[in-house]
Amino acid sequence: MKLPLVSIIMPAYNADQYIEQSIESVLSQTYANWELLITDDRSTDGTQAIVKAYADRDVRIKLFVNAENGGAGIARNNSIKKAKGRYIAFLDADDKWLPEKLTTQISFMLKNDYAFTFTAYQKVEGDEKKGIVIPPEFTCYKKLLSSNVIGCLTAVYDVEKLGKKYMPLIRKRQDMGLWLDILKDLPKAQSIPNVLALYRVDSGMTQNKLEILKWQWRFYRDVVKLNIFNATYHFFIYSVKGFLKHSV
Q: Strand pairing of 87-90 and 6-12?
C-alpha cells in the first residue's frame, strides 16, 4: 500500500545560516512520500539560491517567493494553498526533524485514526542540545488557550478529515491561532511522547521573551476576542507555564 503524501510547510526569511540543515533533515526522513513547499518571504540573503539548488536536484522540493514581505503566517498559507498532500506538516527554516519523524507520526495517525497530532521535541542552542519538552497526552481548545503545548515543528493535521486549515493573518502567534481553529472542530489533539524534532532557541523571536508576551496579550484580545477578565486569566496562566517551559 502506498503511503499518503505529506506536504511539509516551510516559511523562510533570511535563513541561509540554517536552512540547509532543515532541508537535509527532510531529505533524511525514512518516510519518502513527501513534498517540501518553501515560501520565501522576500529574503535579502542567500536563502533563495540555496533552496533553488535543492529544488533543481529533487522534484519534491518546491520554491515559491512572496510578492512582498508579509510574515511567516502569509508564507505558510501560500504553501498550504499549493499543497497536494493528505497531511500537512510544519517545519521552520531553522529547525530540524529526526529521521524517523514522519514514519512514526503518520503511522500513529493512520493506526489510531487521529486527525491532529504533535510530539515531544528537544531544544538546541548552537550545536548543543538542551532541554526536552514533553507535551501532555492530549490538548483541547480550552487547555490550549492557556498554554500552547503544540510545537509548530511537530504538528501534523489531516486534510482529508479537516479540510485545509490556514493560519490567521497576524504577524506573530499564527500557529496558536491555527491550532485553536482546528480544535473548534475537533475534541482534542493527541501527542506522541517521542522526541522527533529539534527546536532552535538561539535565533529569531525565541530570544525575546518580553516581545513574546506582548504579542500573546494582543493575540488574546485582538484575535481570540477574549474579554479583559478572560484575557487576563489565560495570560497569567500562559506566562507562568511559559516560564516553566523555557526554564527546562
A: parallel
Cell numbers given for 118:
504533535
Predicted TM-score (pTM) of the model is: 0.89
Tens-place pLDDT, residues 80-120: 999 999 999 999 999 999 999 999 999 999 999 999 999 99
Query: Cβ distance 13 to 40 under 8 Å?
Result: yes
Pick the CATH number of 6-203 from 3.90.550.10, 2.60.40.2230, 3.40.50.150, 1.10.10.10: 3.90.550.10
**Residue bearing cell 495570560:** 235
User: Per 3-state DSSP, what percentage of the chain is helix, strand, and coil (rounded to 5)?
Assistant: 40, 25, 35
Domain boundaries, the chain: 6-203
As given in the structure block, the three cell numbers for residue 30 are 525514512
